[in-house]
């Protein structure tokens, strides 16, 4: 899967080039906006609501034509200038809806870890789709049981706003940049930078698995504030040193299975393995990397 920077590098050609193509490079006045949730906990949508008065100010600058919290017309899909999508495509109906939204939206922007990586739903892929279904349903026949994919692997995505849940202030900042006709950027700093700037205790140094050194910052290290290690919900940095990080985990006594468990929570495991393989092919043949690549792959199949 692509990193945030790669995902956010190119913008898709608009659905209606003559009209929406101009809007993408210029200030967008009163765009028609939809916020749609697929399968998810709706936490990212609540993060938008939690903006309170700031959200009401934003609402004056857009034409919010569809949001189930406020206005819901499930029969009508689009056209939208901007469509925000939260959640994962867990069912065939989710996939159909997603494709319709893509077709009828100038820009499709995904919100949160579920849409970005498949999030918690993606654990099903690693447990085994059928095994997972059997854990929940006594009679699983007829239940949709798709592989969980990042939204960007199902339809073209114009921009990704990461985190579980999204940071309302970051959402606001990105939307205001889009309305001003700019291409938003997310800075490539690790979570550690914000963690240490806030004076939080380093859990990695205490021997915990904390992915902060290789994970994209921007969440203000919110988990570390509560003494909870970073499990990577914002995804990998552009050029993470996965090898070094995992070797440190091994040196402090953690097993590949323990690392794998952490990486599966928010769905970053596949990215992690891809990065390890890339570094390996790129000439880094250190024992730690080879070991983790094999160990995580093996643990993934168990
Ligand atoms: S990313 Fe997190 S908060 Fe947002 S919908 Fe998924 S589980 Fe909920
Ligand atoms: S606690 Fe985690 S995020 Fe904070 S400095 Fe240590 S490794 Fe980095
Ligand atoms: S600290 Fe890590 S897990 Fe927590 S919100 Fe930030 S990126 Fe996500």
Automatic annotation (TrEMBL):
<dbReference type="GO" id="GO:0051536">
    <property type="term" value="F:iron-sulfur cluster binding"/>
</dbReference>
<dbReference type="InterPro" id="IPR037024">
    <property type="entry name" value="NiFe_Hase_small_N_sf"/>
</dbReference>
<protein>
    <recommendedName>
        <fullName>NADH:ubiquinone oxidoreductase-like 20kDa subunit domain-containing protein</fullName>
    </recommendedName>
</protein>
<keyword id="KW-0560">Oxidoreductase</keyword>
<dbReference type="InterPro" id="IPR051349">
    <property type="entry name" value="Hydrogenase_assoc-protein"/>
</dbReference>
<dbReference type="InterPro" id="IPR006137">
    <property type="entry name" value="NADH_UbQ_OxRdtase-like_20kDa"/>
</dbReference>
<dbReference type="GO" id="GO:0016491">
    <property type="term" value="F:oxidoreductase activity"/>
</dbReference>
<dbReference type="Pfam" id="PF01058">
    <property type="entry name" value="Oxidored_q6"/>
</dbReference>
<feature type="region of interest" description="Disordered">
    <location>
        <begin position="1"/>
        <end position="26"/>
    </location>
</feature>
<feature type="domain" description="NADH:ubiquinone oxidoreductase-like 20kDa subunit">
    <location>
        <begin position="41"/>
        <end position="177"/>
    </location>
</feature>
């Amino acid at each position: 899967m692509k990193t945030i920077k790669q995902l956010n590098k190119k913008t898709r050609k608009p659905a209606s080039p003559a009209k929406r193509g101009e809007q993408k490079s210029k200030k967008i006045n009163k765009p028609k906006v939809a916020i749609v949730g697929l399968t998810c906990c709706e936490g990212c949508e609540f993060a938008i609501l939690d903006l309170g008065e700031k959200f009401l100010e934003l609402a004056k600058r857009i034409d919010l034509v569809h949001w189930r919290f406020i206005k819901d017309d499930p029969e009508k899909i689009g056209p939208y200038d901007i469509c925000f999508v939260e959640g994962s495509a867990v069912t065939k109906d989710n996939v159909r809806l997603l494709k319709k939204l893509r077709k009828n939206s100038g820009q499709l922007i995904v919100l949160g870890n579920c849409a970005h990586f498949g999030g918690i739903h993606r654990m099903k892929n690693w447990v085994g789709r059928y095994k997972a279904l059997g854990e929940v349903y006594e009679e699983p026949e007829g239940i949709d049981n798709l592989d969980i994919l990042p939204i960007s692997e199902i339809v073209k995505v114009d921009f990704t706003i990461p985190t579980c849940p999204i940071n309302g202030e970051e959402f606001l900042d990105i939307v205001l940049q889009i309305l001003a006709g700019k291409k938003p950027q997310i800075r490539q700093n690790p979570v550690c930078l914000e963690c240490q700037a806030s004076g939080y205790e380093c859990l990695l140094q205490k021997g915990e698995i904390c992915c902060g050194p290789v994970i994209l910052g921007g969440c203000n290290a919110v988990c570390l504030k509560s003494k909870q290690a970073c499990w990577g919900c914002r995804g990998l940095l552009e050029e993470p040193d996965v090898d070094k990080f995992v070797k440190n985990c091994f040196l402090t006594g953690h097993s590949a299975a323990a690392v794998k468990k952490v990486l599966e929570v928010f769905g970053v495991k596949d990215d992690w393995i891809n990065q390890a393989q890339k570094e390996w092919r790129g000439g880094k043949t250190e024992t730690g990397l080879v070991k983790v690549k094999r160990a995580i792959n093996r643990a993934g199949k168990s």
